[in-house]
Amino acid sequence: MSEDFNIIKYKTVSSTNDKAKECLQSGKPENFTVIISEEQTKGRGQRGNFWHSEKNKNLTLSTIIFPNFLPVSKQFYLSKVVSLGIIDYLNSKKQGFKIKWPNDIFYNDKKICGILIENSLTGTEIKSSIIGIGLNINQKKFPENLPDAISLKNITDKNYNIENEVNELLTFISKKYNLLKTLNFTEIDFLYHKNLYKINKLSNFKDVNGTFKGKIKGTLSEGNLIVQAKNDLIKYYNFKEIEFL
Ligand code: BTN
């Protein structure tokens, strides 16, 4: 399985996304080159947050791909297929994982995986994309400031061989990426919405106007979240414009 992926392993890096960036700057790496490290000293999360991961316990990796076939306006579909690949991988261990918009992976109300995608654009084309994935595998305890974190070990009570898991995970992701290559956006949307956390469930949210009750109805192709408020008003949210309570 591993021969499809060019895996470069490190013991310690500041961030695998940063290493992937260096790799892109120093030449043209193969499609699906994967940078993986046992430890990150400056693991980066969304919104400038630090990504915590205990050394040698979890998956912290970045994959370099070249989705030149994808219009920039559809770049959120990268996030959709990567999330779906991760869901397929996790559901092969145990059912019940969901995608929390835009691209966190949850088990019940706890986060098992975060994704940080960094695209390099040239006009209307996506030149290259770094897909950073932090997936909690064998870590048993998380710091107090991360009460919502969970690992596969916590959920299944099993220990995993990280090397095997990398290959399995990448295989699931590349399958879903192939779906994107066929530009089958309808199928991807169907699967993404089917696996979306809290879809069609009356839930509490917060936006600039305060807290409100509403139901997630889906996403636009640009990635915006569609929420129907209790008064039936449909609202569209960009990243960071809405909070789940
Ligand atoms: C999030 O905030 O949910 C996104 C977290 C992404 C973390 C991964 S770990 C591997 C890769 N390298 C990084 O520095 N960040 C991503």
Q: Nearest-angstrom radius of gyration?
A: 18 Å
Low-confidence stretches: none
The level of helicity is: 10-25%
Helices and strands, in order, run as EHEEHEEEEHHHEEEEE
Instruction: Give the end-to-end Cα distance, rounded to a whole number of Å.
Output: 41 Å
Round the mean pLDDT to the nearest integer and report it. 95
- The outline comes out as globular
How many structural domains in the coordinates? 2
Structural class: alpha+beta
How are the strands of the largest sheet arranged?
Answer: 1-2-3-7-6-5-4
* Total count of strands: 12
CATH architecture of the largest domain: 2-Layer Sandwich
Number of helices: 5
Summarize the model shown.
The protein has helices at 16-25, 76-91, 152-156, 162-181, 185-194; strands at 6-13, 33-40, 59-65, 97-100, 104-107, 110-122, 125-135, 203-207, 210-219, 225-229, 234-237, 243-244. It has 245 residues and is α+β, with helices and mostly antiparallel strands.
